[in-house]
Design goal:
Layout lengths: L1 E4 L2 E4 L10 H5 L2 E9 L2 E2 L2 H14 L8 H14 L5 E8 L16 E7 L6 H6 L1 E5 L20 H12 L5 E4 L5 E4 L3 E6 L2 E3 L11 H12 L3 E3 L5 H5 L3 E6 L3 E8 L2 E2 L7 H16 L2 E2 L3
Parallel strand pairs: 7-8, 7-14, 11-12
Antiparallel strand pairs: 1-2, 1-6, 3-4, 3-5, 4-16, 5-6, 8-9, 10-11, 10-13, 13-14, 14-15
Bound molecules: 3-[O-phosphonopyridoxyl]--amino-benzoic acid.
């Protein structure tokens, strides 16, 4: 495995950053999780745009242009002979001292890792997954805005721990007002009266790339979409439910907090969107090999 750090490639054991990097000391940095399918990087421009937006929000200057960042990702995939894979793009604040002040850190680092990922077992994609809501509240938008894909994921990690300790693989997080925000690493959708609904970004959700693709696919199929505030009641009474994420793709949800969703099987609209998403991932993206 070859890992990209600031323009050079290193073997897995040699790919290291300083213990004084504020990415490690304070979670001060931003990242992206990206997928490659069929020798192409899916929605690469969208991921690069989002890391620039995340960086802007934390006053971090990405040391490369958008074009150079695209190139770094593609080069890392090629260096690792990637056909299908999962890519982690990271920009850290860089080396500073033990104080919080980020302005001490003069050169942010760019890291690209190309690997594989399997978030959930295949059978759950067929049968649907059961999830719960957890006590840990999603970060308030005026604290660390969940729209920022920052290296500080403790809010999500705490919720994930609560899910796993209770015997579940993913958790729904509510915001400080009690509305549904998102899951620890996935956005959440429901189908209600033939309308596809997902929480608004203001509820404290990441502007998921997969979320955006699914909203587009639904509209193209003539399915109405909306982004209203949702409560747990809305989830429990949904006709269908699924989660979206780069790693998870679309995964059907059939039970939430013990309530059976719809028929208890993945719904027809969900299954149709899964099909459409798969064909899109197979047929589009930034080519790795010319
Ligand atoms: N919400 C959050 C909080 C995320 O971290 C998504 C939604 C889905 O966004 P995209 O753009 O991928 O459709 C994410 C991204 C994991 C893991 O191990 C998940 C993500 C990132 C890193 C790790 O579950 N999901």
């Amino acid at each position: 495995m070859k890992i990209y750090i600031d323009g050079k490639f290193y073997g897995k054991d040699e790919a290291k950053i300083s213990v004084f990097d504020h990415g490690l000391l304070y979670g001060d940095g931003v990242f992206e999780g990206i997928r490659a399918y069929n020798r192409r990087v899916f929605k690469l421009k969208e991921h690069v745009d989002r890391i620039f937006y995340s960086a802007k929000a934390i006053l971090l200057d990405v040391p490369l242009t958008r074009e150079e960042l695209v190139q770094a990702v593609v080069d890392t995939c090629r260096e690792n002979d990637i056909q299908d894979g999962y890519i982690r793009l990271i920009v850290t604040r860089g080396v500073g001292n033990l104080g919080l002040n980020p302005y001490i850190c003069k050169s942010p680092s760019v890291i690209v890792i190309a690997d594989t990922i399997q978030l959930y077992p295949e059978e759950l994609y067929q049968e649907g997954m059961e999830i719960i809501t957890v006590p840990t509240t999603r970060n308030h938008v005026n604290a660390v805005n969940p729209a920022i894909k920052s290296l500080n994921y403790l809010n999500n990690v705490l919720a994930k721990i609560e899910a796993i300790n209770a015997g579940f693989k993913e958790a729904i997080m509510l915001n400080t007002a009690g509305f549904v925000a998102e899951c620890t690493g996935d956005n959440v959708f429901i189908l209600q009266n033939k309308h596809l609904l997902t929480p608004p970004l203001s509820a404290g959700a990441l502007y998921g790339i997969t979320r955006g693709v699914v909203l587009d696919l639904a509209r193209e199929s003539g399915i109405g979409t909306d982004e209203p505030d949702l409560t747990r009641y809305d989830l429990y009474n949904a006709d269908e439910c699924f989660l979206t994420g780069t790693g998870a793709e679309l995964i059907p949800i059939v039970k939430i907090d013990g309530r059976v969703i719809g028929t208890g099987k993945p719904g027809a609209v969900t299954r149709d969107l899964v099909q459409q998403y798969h064909s899109l991932t197979q047929s589009s993206g930034e080519p790795i090999y010319r």
